[in-house]
Amino acid sequence: MVFWLILAAVIFIIAASGIKIIRPFEKGLVERLGKYRRDAQPGLQFIIPFIERMVKVDLRETVIDVPPQEVITKDNVVVTVDAIIYYQITDAFRVVYNVSNFEIAAIKLAQTNLRNVIGEMELDQTLTSRERINVTLREVLDEATDKWGVKVTRVEIKKIDPPQDIMDAMSKQMKAERTKRAVILEAEGYKQSEITKAEGDKMSAILQAEGQSESIKRVAEANKFKLIAEAEGQANATINVFKAIHEGDPTKDLIAIRYLDALKQIADGKANKVFLPYESSAMLSSLGSMAEIFKDGKESSSVSEKDSKK
């Protein structure tokens, strides 16, 4: 009875060892007596114990951390480079049977190609062209690992560390560049400020000159209209006076009396010289003659009075 129980337990253990469960992101390779037999899909699978063996392959995207290594650039600067590789297995058969240890092979391949890629670049290019390094390295690794049934999806450079003395020199250089840009920007700002100020002064002078010109023009036009109006008024007054004189038909005696009144008003002024029109000379001569006549008449009357008294 005990024998049969032991036999049943052994059979159960052997049968249980032949039951395999494959997860959705895995793929199984079944070998029979050391020879590839078939692929095993996700789910519950059975193999013959001690005769068949199953190798499970993870098909998910996986990350490999490439250890830091020292690389010499084109300008003979030693830098420490650290990278990360993202890959995904596309063919489980080739990754198992074409390479013994894919991760180690990928790390060594990445390190070798890092030396080649960075060795063709100078330090400044290395620090500023990470994307270029990533793309170049990914293309090289993807081409090399294609025969292993692996797809390299991404390569990222984690850090590139130059020596400390190079870092100090670069820091001083960047500081000098920033100071230079600050001085240039300050000079450009001062230049722009002076240009703007000069343009403002220019526009102000132009506007002021235009204002003065417009003011002089308006004053001249006003004086012009004033003189025209005064001339027209004097002309109208002269015409009206002349017309009134002719319509009134004055005698020469009346005209002479008016001249005398005018001369009297002129004589009452502060001027010490009197200018008379040429046409008035004949009138004044006649007035002088009339004055002589009145004077002679007055003297004659006074002589006759003296004779009568005698």
Automatic annotation (TrEMBL):
What domain of life? Bacteria
Q: Where in the cell is it found?
A: Membrane
Bilayer topology reads: Single-pass membrane protein
Which Gene3D superfamilies does this UniProt record tie to the protein? Band 7 domain (3.30.479.30)
Quick one: a GO cellular component term?
A: side of membrane
**Which residue numbers delimit the Band domain?**
17-174
Q: Enumerate the transmembrane spans.
A: none
Keywords for the protein's UniProt record, in alphabetical order = Membrane, Transmembrane, Transmembrane helix
Q: Which Pfam families match?
A: Band_7 (PF01145)
- Database matches in InterPro entries: Band7/mec-2_domain (IPR050710), Band_7 (IPR001107), Band_7/SPFH_dom_sf (IPR036013), Band_7/stomatin-like_CS (IPR018080), Stomatin_HflK_fam (IPR001972)
Q: Which PROSITE patterns match?
A: BAND_7
UniProt lists the family membership as follows: Belongs to the band 7/mec-2 family.
The name under which this protein is listed is SPFH/Band 7/PHB domain protein
Q: What's the source species for this entry?
A: Mesotoga infera
